[in-house]
Q: What sequence folds into this?
């Protein structure tokens, strides 16, 4: 028994059932470091502020008679209260800084702090997008240098840097395809997408005005090449294929798929969400791909920030590059970089499909991604892919005896290992296992995706986890999986130790409360 | 390599466990002819932190940082002072390195801040609800047009000439493929907004009218009459706010009965960053909530009855609805939304109102000073913190010349509207709390010199 300096035992086991701490109530409802934090609307006040501003000069206002008179009811907090509010809230979050984050397809790898420091250099953080180009040569240099890396790493012809996230990149690629087809007077209407694709793929094709049809998969979790060939024809604008795919598998027929699509007059879009598995090992350009987005927030370590910002540059083949969006950079022989935008487009890029967003893309993500790429270099990036794939296969082979791994028999996986809920008893589900992992101190794996596997569990460790960290994770996963197979009832009410127990998502959707109001009955009545 | 923890021994023992001889055994599905043997040629090898920092700093030094010289640019991106606390908060690893809050029990931090953000945005805009953010103002604007098409089942959108030209370009890009019908004309150098012409165009085919407030030339027009006419024809009014600080001084679009209000949130918390990442704001009336794009955070309770927050109404979204989703958006601007929200929390209504009036009155002073210069006329009767000067000369070479003198003078309308010759004489000047009187004087003197 350990003792405090006063000589009292640190655990008063006689008085306390340590296994039944739930029966202890505290005055505040808090539990030590687990502290609930009210909303700013409950603790703040519209006439309190954490900012001191100078007096406005004594001149008449010229607001056109539209002064805002009605109260806004936006509360303020002092600086100290603000810091405490957000610090307390932050402690209710899981994050890659806190532990292994095995969310398949999402690539939660370590976010280097050098990248944060570089993005905050005033020469990058404090420049306006419409400054004269001579005053932002360094910023254009970052965009151009990153563009060159992305082109060389993928073996493609050009790159559109402006898309704001992966789905926006998909849209960019699909618009390039559409513009390319229109340029030859070919109005095709259908985009083929595998059932296993991320939901953004069909949503993107529809957002760009296409009809979406499924591509069937074969028993090995890959695109069924013969079925695809049979569907190709003069109405098919292109295919969207994720490679490595969402089952964590490489599409070995990729080149044959590309050739078949090209022969039928279509284009090949590759969802590059999983490029981290093959960077430096394979170049998509060698596989006949026409367009592929790269999530800088996955492969190139820019932080996910609780849901963005992302950044989704799109590499393009020679056939599609002429249609890419505005603006983009051009480096000249003397090192000077110019910006091709509305003012210069006629001479330089006449076939562009136009602009996808204001300004020049996610500059703050470009600086971070470039710092990451330069840190790794060509050799390090290859090692990134190898270690990511090694870690995933290690997990696959360490757990396939306890969890069904539907495609493990066909060979190694890439950067993520896929399991199903086969063998769970007592009506336990993938969701229950996931919540059990929360109690073990982990963020769960991706659940119920891809849709082609029952109760899918997609585990992506990434290359930035140590063997010891992975071994501990495997131990926890095995333990919870065994409980799910044994029908452990307590998993149904997990998590037990998180800041919240299971949340009622049905109620949230049935009576949506999306903003705070003083009288919550009112919020519900408004629905 | 400092980011990779596996040792050669680790790798060997893991390969043994897997039953592989070498790492290449794990890449067997990649056709041999496509496999690369060594590092890609022509690219540098790994580098230490000092070397990378030196390289990046050399690039950063080639830029004129706004804070180092008189600076008066706006046109959809504004330089405001961001309190030190904001950057500290968004650098908390628990916020910075979290994912989209798919597991709400361990993401209440992100979810509660999103709920607060949604409420702040709704109140700022004067609407019932707001979502958890979009990429930026320009993409939020197009999403609003698509949403209006879904609601009204009509495809004709009328865009105000005062809408930011990049926002117009984004809409045009998309409309070309979706076959939406957009009506738009570039602005003219006129003191009055195009409100009257908007009224004349609305008819029974109109899905929405899109009006920027204050508009691209800085003018502030009352939206009430447009809302009324639009509603009479069962069309929607979409208001676009590129400078949210303005709403600390002028009526919210919601007060003038706008149906959807979108905007660029960069002014609060985010910083200029050469154009991105920014944060799209998106709010609307309660009755349209199920047609909204993007993520929504909602309040609920946990199994013990404690209040908690979750992502909700996801049956609108791509991961559930696939090709039938309201939008393809997935990742949005979570961390920028947090920065916006933290800055707004520091300000509070009192601080926001003070900040807004400080911006406005400094802009009034600047407009008066600059319009005293020979060859310079002030276009606007009304404005918030940005106004249009009409010069005797083409403003594009002038802006470049002043930049060479280390004065960032404003945005030339010629750059924004290269195809509209008369606009080349227009210069957009933005004045925020960060501009000092000395800097204004330096600018005025340089402008005088350049025009004489």
A:
């Amino acid at each position: 028994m350990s003792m405090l300096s006063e000589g009292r035992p640190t655990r008063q086991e006689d008085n306390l059932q340590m296994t039944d701490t739930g029966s202890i109530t505290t005055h505040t409802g808090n539990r030590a470091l687990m502290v609930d934090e009210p909303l700013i609307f409950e603790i703040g006040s519209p006439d309190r502020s954490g900012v001191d501003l100078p007096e406005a000069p004594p001149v008449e206002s010229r607001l056109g008679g539209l002064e805002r008179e009605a109260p806004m009811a936006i509360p303020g907090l002092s600086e100290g209260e603000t810091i405490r509010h957000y610090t307390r809230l932050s402690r209710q979050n899981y994050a890659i800084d806190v532990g292994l984050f095995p969310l398949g397809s999402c690539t939660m790898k370590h976010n280097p702090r050098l990248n944060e420091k570089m993005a905050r250099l005033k020469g990058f953080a404090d420049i306006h997008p419409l400054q004269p180009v001579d005053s932002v040569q360094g910023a254009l240099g970052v965009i151009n240098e990153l563009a060159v890396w992305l082109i060389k790493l993928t073996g493609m012809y050009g790159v559109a840097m402006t898309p704001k996230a992966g789905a926006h990149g998909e849209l960019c690629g699909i618009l390039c395809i559409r513009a390319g087809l229109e340029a030859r007077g070919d109005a095709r209407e259908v985009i083929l997408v595998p059932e296993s694709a991320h939901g953004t793929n069909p949503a993107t094709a529809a957002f760009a005005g296409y009809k979406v049809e499924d591509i069937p998969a074969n028993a090995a979790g890959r695109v069924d090449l013969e079925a695809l060939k049979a569907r190709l024809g003069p109405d098919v604008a292109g295919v969207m294929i994720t490679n490595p795919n969402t089952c964590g598998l490489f599409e070995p027929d990729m080149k044959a798929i590309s050739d078949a699509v090209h022969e039928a007059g279509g284009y090949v879009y590759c969802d590059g969400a999983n490029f981290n598995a093959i960077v430096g090992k394979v170049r998509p350009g060698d596989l006949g791909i026409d367009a592929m987005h790269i999530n800088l927030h996955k492969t190139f370590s820019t932080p996910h920030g609780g849901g963005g910002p992302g950044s989704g540059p799109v590499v393009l083949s020679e056939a599609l590059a002429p249609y890419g969006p505005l603006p983009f950079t051009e480096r000249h022989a003397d090192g000077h970089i110019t910006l091709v935008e509305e003012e210069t487009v006629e001479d330089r890029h006449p076939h562009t499909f136009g602009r996808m967003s204001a300004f020049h893309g996610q500059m703050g993500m470009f600086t971070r991604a470039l710092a990451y790429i330069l840190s790794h270099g060509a050799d390090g990036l290859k090692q990134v892919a190898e270690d990511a794939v090694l870690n995933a296969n290690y997990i696959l082979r360490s757990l396939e005896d306890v969890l069904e791994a539907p495609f493990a028999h066909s060979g190694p996986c890439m950067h993520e290992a896929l399991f199903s809920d086969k063998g769970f008893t007592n009506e336990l589900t993938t969701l229950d296992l996931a919540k059990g992992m929360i109690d073990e101190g982990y963020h769960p794996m991706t659940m119920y995706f891809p849709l082609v596997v029952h109760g899918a569990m997609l585990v992506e460790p990434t290359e930035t986890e140590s063997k010891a960290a992975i071994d501990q994770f495997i131990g926890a996963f095995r333990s919870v999986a065994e409980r799910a197979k044994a029908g452990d009832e307590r998993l149904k009410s997990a998590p037990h130790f998180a800041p919240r127990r299971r949340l009622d998502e049905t109620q949230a959707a049935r009576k949506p409360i999306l903003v705070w109001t003083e009288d919550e009955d009112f919020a519900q009545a408004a629905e | 390599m400092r980011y990779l923890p596996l040792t050669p021994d680790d790798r060997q023992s893991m390969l043994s466990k897997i039953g592989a001889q070498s790492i290449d055994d794990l890449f067997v599905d990649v056709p041999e002819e496509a496999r690369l043997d060594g590092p890609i040629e022509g690219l540098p090898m790994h580098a230490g932190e000092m070397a990378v920092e030196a390289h990046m700093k050399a690039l950063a030094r080639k830029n004129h940082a706004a804070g180092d010289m008189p600076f008066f640019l706006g046109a959809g991106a504004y330089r405001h002072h961001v309190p030190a606390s904001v950057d500290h908060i968004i650098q908390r690893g628990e916020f910075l390195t979290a994912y989209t809050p798919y597991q709400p029990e361990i993401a209440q931090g992100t979810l509660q801040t999103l709920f607060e953000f949604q409420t702040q945005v709704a109140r700022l805009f004067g609407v019932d609800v707001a979502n958890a953010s979009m990429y930026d103002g320009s993409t939020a604007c197009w999403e609003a047009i698509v949403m209006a098409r879904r609601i009204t089942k009509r495809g004709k959108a009328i865009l105000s000439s005062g809408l930011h030209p990049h926002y117009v370009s984004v809409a045009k890009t998309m409309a070309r493929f979706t076959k939406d019908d957009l009506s738009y004309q570039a602005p003219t150098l006129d003191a009055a907004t195009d409100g009257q012409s908007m009224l004349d165009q609305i008819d029974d085919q109109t899905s929405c009218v899109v009006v920027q407030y204050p508009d691209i030339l800085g003018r502030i027009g009352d939206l009430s009459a447009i809302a009324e006419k639009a509603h009479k024809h069962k069309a929607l009014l979409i208001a676009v706010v590129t400078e949210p600080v303005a709403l600390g001084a002028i009526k919210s679009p919601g007060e003038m009965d706008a149906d959807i209000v979108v905007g660029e949130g960069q002014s609060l918390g985010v910083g200029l960053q050469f154009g991105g990442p920014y944060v799209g704001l998106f709010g609307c009336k309660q009755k349209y909530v199920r047609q909204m794009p993007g993520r929504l955070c909602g309040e609920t309770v946990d199994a013990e009855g404690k209040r908690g927050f979750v992502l909700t109404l996801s049956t609108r979204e791509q991961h559930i609805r696939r090709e039938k989703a309201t939008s393809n958006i997935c990742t949005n601007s979570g961390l920028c939304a947090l920065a916006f929200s933290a800055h707004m929390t520091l300000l509070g209504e009192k601080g926001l109102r003070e900040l807004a009036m400080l911006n406005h009155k400094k802009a009034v002073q600047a407009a008066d000073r600059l319009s005293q210069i020979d060859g310079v006329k002030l276009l606007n009767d009304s404005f918030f913190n940005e106004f249009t000067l009409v010069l005797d000369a083409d403003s594009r070479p002038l802006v470049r010349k002043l930049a060479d003198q280390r004065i960032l003078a404003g945005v030339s309308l010629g750059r924004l509207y290269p195809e509209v010759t008369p606009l080349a004489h227009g210069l957009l000047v933005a004045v925020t709390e960060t501009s000092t009187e000395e800097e204004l004087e330096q600018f005025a003197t340089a402008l005088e010199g350049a025009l004489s």
